[in-house]
Amino acid sequence: MSTYMPTLKQLQYLVALKEHEHFGRAADATFVTQSTLSAGIRELESLIGVTLVERTRRIVRFTALGEKIVEKAHRVLREAEELAAIAQASGSPLVGEMRMSVIPTIAPFLLPSLLPRLRAERPALQLYLREETSHAALDSLRHGHADCVLLALPFPCGDVETEVLFDDPLYVAFPKDDPRDPPAQIDPEMIDGNRLLLLEDGHCLKEHALAACNRAELRTEARITGTSLHTLVQMVDNGLGVTLLPEMAIRGGILANTQIAARPIRSLSAHRDIALIWRRNSPRESDFRLMAGILRNAAAMQREAVAA
């Protein structure tokens, strides 16, 4: 008796439906019509003899078995992509497609110096970028939507390969007319928790900032309202409080045209490590190591340009 083997296309349809929870959006994501996607999933259900998805007019709900199968489907599709990656890795380095997720507190400050360098040095590389918070980026990596992730450590990343690129110190940013006139370095005890503005949950920089301050009470005292670093800067510029910024953002000009000063924190934890991560045992490891070197050099050139 032969067992029916799902096709990769059917598994792609199933995974897309799980991700988007809507037949129309899942069809758009897989570049087929809604009827094609729906028929593909029904055929899969019919041939394996189980219901994977409960359909109503308003809701798409996966059955318990459907949840298990879609999780397996993620792994099968990732393995299939890595088969193609093995062949690609045997040729010239850094050619073809690479999908990189980048967290929002890195993307606007490092990528502008990186992308022209990549275009000049690696014209055969097609780099697709996706800006996501750390948790979302790791989900993308786990499910095969991203090949590598550029993020900041420490952060729980799971079973991945990591290459640390450089250290990114943290600074306290405050209005230039602050009557307390902070010294050249700011002790964590000087930070008023009631005036501290941090990013909302989901951004790893929030945890890095709290670790730099090393004061447990700030977790409840801080006004966690910012959705981005640029939003926090505008709040500080309007006298609403103080915040912590990475040196990378300051070098990238985030304080231009503001009345904000920034001073380093006197703390051993007042920094984050910028790193590139990828799935363990990926056949493209040599490509990611090369990319890490390019990222490291781009950051070094940016620092030199600012210093000059």
UniProtKB/TrEMBL annotation:
Keyword Transcription regulation found: yes
Extent of the signal sequence: none
Gene3D superfamilies xref list: Periplasmic binding protein-like II, Winged helix-like DNA-binding domain superfamily/Winged helix DNA-binding domain
Keywords tagged on the record: DNA-binding, Transcription, Transcription regulation
InterPro entries given in the database record: LysR_HTH_N, LysR_subst-bd, WH-like_DNA-bd_sf, WH_DNA-bd_sf
Keyword Ion transport attached: no
Stored SUPFAM superfamilies: Periplasmic binding protein-like II, Winged helix' DNA-binding domain
Any Pfam family matching the protein: HTH_1
HTH lysR-type domain: residues covered: 6-63
Superkingdom of origin organism: Bacteria
PANTHER family from the UniProt entry: TRANSCRIPTIONAL DUAL REGULATOR HCAR-RELATED (PTHR30346), TRANSCRIPTIONAL REGULATOR OF OXIDATIVE STRESS OXYR (PTHR30346:SF10)
Family, similarity comment: Belongs to the LysR transcriptional regulatory family.
UniProt protein name: LysR family transcriptional regulator
Organism: Sphingobium nicotianae
